[in-house]
Amino acid sequence: MNILAIGAHPDDIECCCAGTLAKYAAQGHKVFIATSTSGNIGSATLSKEEIGALRKQEAAKSAALIGAEYICLDYDDELFYDDVNVRLAFINLVRHCKPDVIFTHNPHDYNPDHELTSKIVHDIHVMPPINNIVTEEPPFDGFPVVYYFEPHKGLGFVPTDYVDITDHFETKKQMLLCHESQKAWMAHAYSGFSVDEVFTEDMETTAKYRGLQCGVKYAEGFVRCNDAYRVKPGSFLP
């Protein structure tokens, strides 16, 4: 299968579903990791161009740990808005990846980039086969299954599905640690907290909690999108 995870920023995917992606990759599936933005405001010292380039490098390094392809749509962090060209870029992305499964943000989240990414993925989901919507990549038949990963700190999120990531937790952690510039930014922006607390420890706590719920050491939780053309019989999770 082809698996596509679409996050708003570099490090979103690592926090939310990298263990599942690592498990897919280990089983021989093709994995794509995409971000709507480059994360180009995440520095107290570097320019937007410099930090954007650095964060894309870090995201590519993270993806390479599981043999995934990283794609950045390169919109501005926190100034990401919807229009026709944005929709076409997302359709082109899906046509390029030809996914059987898409992971993206929960529709209700604390960050507007997260919520907009989720909405666009949902809205364009049925459009890649349509010949009269023209993009660089040609149309392809079929509709992927869509899963939403949980928002930061999991508030109000009740999974419908779980993936045991115990054997892939350390890979997930190493993928997240590739985002060194984000850790530096969080040390600056969240000076009242331990950097580890708001970076890797949050991720580990969530994985332990979801594991506790489903009877394993570490897990990731998802909500399966239950709309027409977005569901199929059976499970598509690894």
Structural features:
238 residues, alpha/beta, Rossmann fold, seven-stranded mixed β-sheet, 7 helices, globular
* Largest sheet data: 7 strands, mixed
Instruction: Enter the CATH topology name.
Output: Rossmann fold
Write the element-wise H/E pattern from the N-terminal end onward. Answer: EHEHEHEHEEHHHE
Biggest sheet strand line-up: 3-2-1-4-5-7-6
Uncertain residue segments: none
Any idea what the CATH superfamily is called?
Answer: LmbE-like
How far apart are the first and last residues' alpha carbons, in Å? Answer: 11 Å
Helix/strand-derived category reads alpha/beta
Oligomer: single chain
What gyration radius follows from the Cα positions, in whole Å?
Answer: 17 Å
| CATH architecture heading | 3-Layer(aba) Sandwich
Average pLDDT level: 93
Describe the overall structure.
There is one protein chain. With 238 residues, this protein is an alpha/beta fold. It contains seven helices and seven strands, in the order E-H-E-H-E-H-E-H-E-E-H-H-H-E. It has helices at 12-26, 48-64, 84-97, 112-124, 169-177, 180-189, 197-214, and strands at 2-7, 30-37, 69-75, 101-105, 145-149, 161-164, 219-224. Strands 3-2-1-4-5-7-6 form a seven-stranded mixed beta sheet, with helices on both faces. Helix 2 (48-64) runs antiparallel to helix 5 and helix 5 (169-177) packs antiparallel against helix 7 (197-214). The chain is globular and about 50 Å long.
